[in-house]
Amino acid sequence: MEKLNKLSPSCDEGADQIPDRRRCRGAGEPLDLIVIGAGPAGLFCAINASGKDRKILVLEKKKSPGSKLLISGSGRCNLTHDGDMQSFLDHYGDNGRFLRPALLGFTNRDLVAFFEERGLAMITLEGGKVFPETQRSRDVLAVLLAEGEARGVQIVCGKSVTSIEKSGEGFLVACWDETYRSRTLVIATGGRSYPATGSTGDGYGFAEALGHAIAEIGPALAPVRIRDYPFADLAGISLPGARVSIFRGKKVREHEGDVLFTHEGLSGPGILDLSRSIRAGDVLRVSFVVDETREDLERWLLDRSRGDGARNLRSILAEMDIPARLASRVLEILEIPQDLKCASMTREMRIGLADRLSGFPLVVEGLGGYGCAMATRGGVDLKEVDSKTMESRLARGLYFSGEILDVDGDTGGYNLQAAFSTGFLAARSIQKRLSDQEGTR
Ligand SMILES: Cc1cc2nc3c(=O)[nH]c(=O)nc-3n(C[C@H](O)[C@H](O)[C@H](O)COP(=O)(O)OP(=O)(O)OC[C@H]3O[C@@H](n4cnc5c(N)ncnc54)[C@H](O)[C@@H]3O)c2cc1C
Q1: Contact 214, 207 (CB under 8 A)
Q2: How far is the CA of 172 from the centre of ligand 1 (A)?
Q3: One domain for residues 27 and 71
Q4: What is the value of pTM for the model shown?
Q5: Distance (Å) from CA 417 to ligand 1 centroid
Q6: Same domain membership, residue 321 and residue 192
Q7: Is there a single domain that holds both residue 169 and residue 258?
Q8: Same domain for 340 and 430
Q9: Pocket residues for ligand 1 (CB within 6 Å)?
């Protein structure tokens, strides 16, 4: 540790050079804890595992810590959500149950309190999203780094971990130029999305090297590209509270949320939150009217054709808050004249309109890739991790936290909360393990 006694993040200037010979750090006493990855999960874990005279080292491959945290929420950092913890669990797809102990052990209220006690006030904005009052993610990172410094956590940047292995009761962690020894190890390397932030999926290989299975990974919180997309020129139009259903033979899932037309397909929270379940070839049915079934719409159109026969069909579609250009495109697709009077609407037209407006079918070409996905689905198989401690069931002393795990959240602050909560839970267990070991030394 002799060269690692700086308290603020240091950058290993030689990180880009080829080593002459790999040195072994800690040939004497091993470090108490090494955390791989200085994202929110790794930093928070290191902070909370710290203790008097405890040697904790965070290794970060980028030249500075928290790159993804800095761009989160478009730089405003939607830190968590204001909802109650029970409803929180519904925002992580099928694997939400795994997070229960973590989220109950360190809640959204605890997270807000952590930052407010350190002088960073929080505000709750649209839809219950919680942000720092300054709406600057760099202020969130600054609190984490100051806390780490105060607690003696050492962060070395520009240090890409290349391999790990179990060695007796501890671990050997190798970088390009040297190898470290530690009693406990946390893999907090994130997922694979936005690889420019450093999250390039290295952690999956490390976990595999220690025997862990990886549930198939893929982009999540990603926009979708649509085959033969008919709304490219309507990019920018958004549909508040649209119902989106996924069909793969039968209906797989349904979700309501704001949907945005893009040049290539669909985006917006209603699509992003559903994207972990969407696969190429799926049919998405998107409602252009809120709260109306196909049958309701057909009946309503029939009433209009009888009661408002002289009116233009387009003008009554406007009553349903369908954007005019979208209504016009749907008429065009159904080959219904734009100036058709309601009285002239045929049964076939009525059925076609009710069908398309209540659930317009669009075939998924594919999901946006890791370059635009805000999260990664899949990851370290949860069956092999103890949800109460985040410790590996295969290698004692090995822990996981954050997005590397096979669980990902909706938009709205759920992913950062999961990163902090799993980091905290791992830290609590590491504290106990190290204290027990210290007691017997
Ligand atoms: C554009 C964007 C906006 C987002 N906005 C929000 C938001 O507002 N609210 C929200 O809740 N979530 C948001 N997210 C998701 C959230 O940022 C992530 O889920 C969260 O950062 C995951 O934290 P983590 O610590 O697990 O991983 P990361 O933040 O990805 O950190 C992992 C770290 O490990 C390092 N690392 C990787 N491999 C190695 C290696 N071999 N050696 C050393 N270090 C390594 C990486 O460089 C990185 O710094 C957003 C994501 C994106 C991409």
Answers
A1: yes
A2: 24
A3: yes
A4: 0.90
A5: 12
A6: no
A7: no
A8: no
A9: 36-42, 59-62, 67-69, 71-73, 77-78, 160-161, 188-190, 193-194, 198-199, 202, 374-375, 402-403, 413-416, 419
Q: In the predicted model, what is the mean pLDDT of residues 310-330? A: 92
Task: Answer with the one of 368, 387, 410 that is the final residue of a domain.
Answer: 368
Query: Does the pLDDT value for residue 12 go beyond 70?
Result: no
Backbone region of residue 40 per phi and psi (left: phi > 0; alpha: psi in -120 to 50; beta: other values):
alpha
Q: Which atom of ligand 1 is nearest to the CA of 67?
A: 49
Task: Say yes or no to pLDDT of 11 above 80.
Answer: no
CA distances from residue 376 to 128, 405, 425 in whole angstroms, order as listed: 23, 9, 21
Q: Ligand 1 pocket test: pick from 57, 58, 60, 68 the residue with the most ligand atoms within 8 Å of its Cβ.
A: 68
Number of structural domains (the chain) is: 2
CA of 37 to the centre of ligand 1 (A): 9
* Alpha-carbon dihedral angle through residues 387, 389, 390, 396, given to the nearest 10 degrees: -120
- Longest Cα–Cα distance in the chain: 91
Which CATH number goes with the domain that contains 99?
3.50.50.60
Contacts of 321 (CB under 8 A, 6+ apart): 289, 290
Asked if pLDDT for residue 73 goes beyond 90, the answer is yes
Identify the domain containing residue 389 by its residue range.
2-219+371-440
Answer with the one of 339, 368, 397 that is the final residue of a domain.
368
- Whether 346 and 317 map to the same domain: the answer is yes
Tokens of 252: 């797989």
Say how many Å lie between the CA of residue 204 and the centre of ligand 1.
14
Residues 134 and 261 in one domain: no
- With CA atoms as reference, report the closest residue to 171 among 163, 181, 161, 179: 181
pLDDT at 20 over 50: no
pLDDT at position 426, please?
98
Q: Verify that 52 and 123 share a domain, yes or no.
A: yes
Q: What is the best residue among 72, 77, 81, 92 to mutate for testing ligand 1's pocket, by most ligand atoms within 8 Å of CB?
A: 72
Nearest to 411 by CA among 280, 313, 270: 270
Average pLDDT of 79-99? 92
pLDDT digits (tens, 9 = 90+) for 371-414: 999 999 999 999 999 999 999 999 999 999 999 999 999 999 99
Q: Are residues 174 and 79 both part of a single domain?
A: yes
* Ligand 1 centroid – CA 109 distance (Å): 22
